[in-house]
Design goal:
Distance between the termini of chain A: 55 Å
Strand content of chain A: 15-25%
Radius of gyration of chain A: 16 Å
Strand order of the largest sheet of chain A: 2-1-5-3-4
Helix content of chain B: 25-40%
Number of strands of chain B: 14
CATH class of the largest domain in chain A: Alpha Beta
CATH topology of the largest domain in chain A: Ubiquitin-like (UB roll)
Strand order of the largest sheet of chain B: 4-5-10-6-7
Structural class of chain B: alpha+beta
Largest interface: A-B, 30 and 27 residues
Number of domains of chain B: 2
Oligomer: heterodimer
Number of domains of chain A: 2
Number of strands of chain A: 5
Largest sheet of chain A: 5 strands, mixed
Shape of chain B: globular
CATH class of the largest domain in chain B: Alpha Beta
Number of helices of chain A: 5
Distance between the termini of chain B: 53 Å
Largest sheet of chain B: 5 strands, antiparallel
Helix content of chain A: 25-40%
């Protein structure tokens, strides 16, 4: 059976008919064409599908689309504004924090969720927030440095 | 993933009707972090899922207005609704104020994304022997509040697990919340977890230890996860600690914990390794409690 759901994605309101057993990840990618969340392990281990849902990072492969009725979703597609990259995106580029790029959208959304709640995290707090985001190109150090850089930019000094 | 139907009842009567649909495999849905992977790999075959997050009281995290209660003073118990997320528990100032060992266990579970979805009721209901919340709830002497088509009941956590991935709930029954007595001032609880990586993995061994001020000394509770068909208490270790918690007693209690468990070999660790690590992790947890008792 189909369920009609309404959700806000990157500030835009969408109404879409979804099947009960389809995940938010599947609906984002295959029905709405929002493909920054990646299909990785589909088991809640790798974080490649991470989106921000109602202000917190979740694995979109672990959410039924129908559960997202009324939710507010943020993905990488919503990070840049007026053609300008988000500071996290710029920092990832400057720090060479991207190798193959498959984990990057999930890393960015986990990092954004962290900074939204805790603008000045320690390196330990950053690593803790990224426990659920696996990078298989051994890029963690540069990713942590990129996020620290953004956290410093936000300093009032 | 095999197709299934989705329902979101607004009241318990509707929920019980759905959960007991004749000839149908109906699963309660809370955080979905067990349901989706288990359905995807074919271990669970739901015809339908019943989203319980809209039922009254299931998202509450509070100390007041409790009915039924466990016999302690009114307003002295913590009520955690079954659908409260692990991260809500881990970050809750209320939980950390008197029930910190539960916050520690919630923070040790899964990863950030999973803790933002997974619920306390689900962690218990799935009844994994390695459930991080279980040892904490065992040492806190918590009760599982259950509603079902035939009425309400309260089950001590100790009696809730029936075997690996099996609990004592009957068809149609739902965990609605967890009730936890308020430990007396001066109580200290610690959850120690050993896993293959520092975070984001299931426990090889999980140990919760709690010391309650009692008469002139302390009353101890020791609970072990991932080393038996269900999470268990170690009454032998508790008796030893009740008599004292100097170095000799701590070693003796850790050895007693070794004797309580009967772990299995799996992808995470061999049974022999698990059993040896029970000694180390139990000792570490007891020492951490002692350190806070006598800073």
């Amino acid at each position: 059976m189909h369920h009609e759901i309404t959700l806000t994605i990157n500030g835009d309101l969408y109404t879409v008919a979804v099947q009960s057993h389809h995940t938010l990840l599947k609906v984002l990618r295959e029905q709405l064409g929002i493909t920054s969340p990646k299909v990785g392990c589909e088991n809640g281990e790798c974080g490649a599908c991470t989106v921000i849902m109602n202000g917190v990072a979740v694995n979109s492969c672990q959410v039924l689309a129908v559960e997202a009725d009324g939710a507010t979703i943020e993905t990488v597609e919503g990070l840049s504004k007026d053609g300008n990259l988000h500071p996290l995106q710029t920092a990832f580029i400057e720090h060479n924090a991207v190798q193959c790029g498959f984990c990057t959208p999930g890393m960015l959304m986990s990092a954004k969720a962290l900074l939204d709640h805790n603008p000045h995290p320690t390196a330990d707090e950053i690593r803790h927030a990224l426990v659920g985001n696996l990078c298989r190109c051994t890029g963690y150090t540069r990713i942590v440095e990129a996020i620290q850089d953004v956290a410093r930019q936000g300093d009032p000094t | 993933m095999q197709p299934f139907e989705y329902y979101k009842p607004k009241d318990f009567d509707e929920a019980f009707k759905l959960l007991t649909l004749p000839g149908k495999m109906m699963y309660p849905l809370a955080g979905a972090t067990d349901l989706i992977p288990h359905t995807r790999d074919g271990a669970w075959k739901p015809d339908g899922v019943v989203d319980i997050k809209g039922l009254p009281g299931l998202r509450d995290l509070k100390v007041e207005g409790l009915e039924p209660c466990c016999g302690c003073a009114p307003g002295e118990c913590l009520y955690v609704g079954a659908a409260v997320r692990m991260n809500e528990i881990a970050h809750s100032a209320l939980v950390r104020s008197h029930w910190d060992v539960l916050a520690q266990a919630a923070a040790a579970m899964g990863n950030e994304q999973v803790r933002n979805r997974a619920t306390l009721g689900g962690n218990l209901g799935t009844a994994s022997p390695a459930a991080d919340s279980a040892p904490a709830l065992l040492v806190l002497e918590a009760s599982v509040l259950v509603k079902g088509p035939e009425g309400d009941r309260s089950i001590p956590v100790e009696k809730f697990f029936a075997g690996p991935k099996r609990n004592v709930l009957k068809k149609g029954e739902l965990i609605v919340g967890i009730l936890i007595p308020k430990p007396p001032v001066g109580s200290v609880g610690v959850y120690e977890k050993l896993s293959r990586r520092k975070a984001g993995d299931l426990a090889i061994v999980g140990v919760a230890v709690m010391a309650y001020p009692h008469a002139s000394g302390h009353r101890w509770r020791v609970a072990l996860g991932a080393v038996a068909p269900t999470p268990i208490r170690s009454p032998q270790a508790e008796v030893i600690l009740n008599a004292g918690h100097d170095a000799a007693h701590i070693d003796e209690a850790a050895a007693a914990a070794y004797g309580c468990c009967c772990p299995i070999d799996d992808v995470r660790a061999s049974a022999a390794y698990r059993q040896m690590m029970v000694v180390n992790i139990t000792r570490r947890a007891i020492r951490a409690v002692v350190q806070q008792l006598h800073p």
